[in-house]
Design a protein that fits this description.
single chain, 272 residues, mainly alpha, transmembrane helix, membrane
Length: 272
């Protein structure tokens, strides 16, 4: 566990991806169909992480996530978009790189909408402890943009350590980008629950989606990532995944114990 040099498996991540996800000659069936199924599951629940949040924002006019989560996510998905197109160009537009080159900008747009809504509607709650008096719209945007820059600086450094843009380094980080939906939210949701006494800025449906998506990152047979590269097939990776899933279950249970949200002022039911 502690003596093997896993960095040997970090070389040529795009090549490892193409080897597993290449189509069988004359067909549209990958060499390893189970990897395609795992990828589709990963992408589906990954999109649901934000689709469910946007549903809550439209119906209830609140963001279930803290703004820091969006600021960090938008920076890594933006760089991931560039990486995917760079790898697509360098590898004859292999379909996986093209797919994520198209899909990641959609995530970026959803994250941008969430940041905009948070600055517009929640800047006092998000940044009130950082300034005296009322947080102006300009102050909210200054802090939010600063948070994006901070997130980008960390992500770019990590991606450089993992081989850079040509090595599709974002692929190695993606599991962690799902774990943060438990890491960086548990205290936020606990505080909201105590403050409001119900599931305000939370949702059972959202908690189920987070729990499932995090678990898809590390369970053998379901994880797309460990099917594509031995670099992640380590005891430490599984331990990290188990802990992240456990935290997600704790968040789910805490949400379940809270009273349901009251009917909205417009008479509509809150998002489950």
């Amino acid at each position: 566990m502690f003596t093997e040099n896993y960095m040997d498996f970090l070389k040529d991540v795009p090549g490892q991806v193409m080897e597993v996800m290449a189509f069988q000659p004359g067909t549209l069936i990958p060499v390893h169909p189970e990897a395609l199924i795992a990828m589709l599951l990963c992408m589906t629940f990954g999109y649901l992480l934000y689709v469910q949040a946007l549903r809550i924002m439209v119906r209830e006019k609140v963001d279930p996530y803290p703004i820091w989560l969006h600021c960090w996510m938008i920076s890594i998905d933006f760089t991931g978009s560039i990486m995917s197109w760079q790898c697509a160009i360098e590898h004859d537009f292999f379909w996986v790189f093209v797919l994520f080159g198209i899909g990641l900008p959609i995530w970026v747009c959803m994250e941008a909408v969430c940041i905009y809504k948070s600055v517009k509607n929640h800047r006092q709650e998000e940044f009130g402890s950082l300034v005296k008096g009322e947080v102006t719209l300009k102050q909210g945007w200054v802090v939010a943009i600063g948070m994006v820059i901070v997130g980008a600086s960390v992500n770019l450094w990590a991606e450089t350590l993992l081989g850079g843009f040509s090595n599709w380094a974002v692929f190695i980080i993606w599991p962690f980008t799902n774990y943060v939906f438990a890491y960086w939210t548990w205290r936020f949701w606990r505080e909201q629950g105590i403050k409001n006494g119900n599931r305000f800025r939370n949702s059972m449906g959202l908690q189920w989606i987070i729990t499932i998506q995090i678990t898809l990152m590390w369970v053998p047979g379901l994880s797309w990532y460990i099917q594509l590269t031995p670099y992640l097939n380590t005891p430490a990776y599984y331990f990290c995944g188990i802990v992240a899933s456990a935290l997600a279950v704790i968040n789910l249970y805490y949400c379940y114990k809270l009273p349901k949200k009251e009917t909205l002022p417009n008479g509509k039911k809150p998002i489950w």
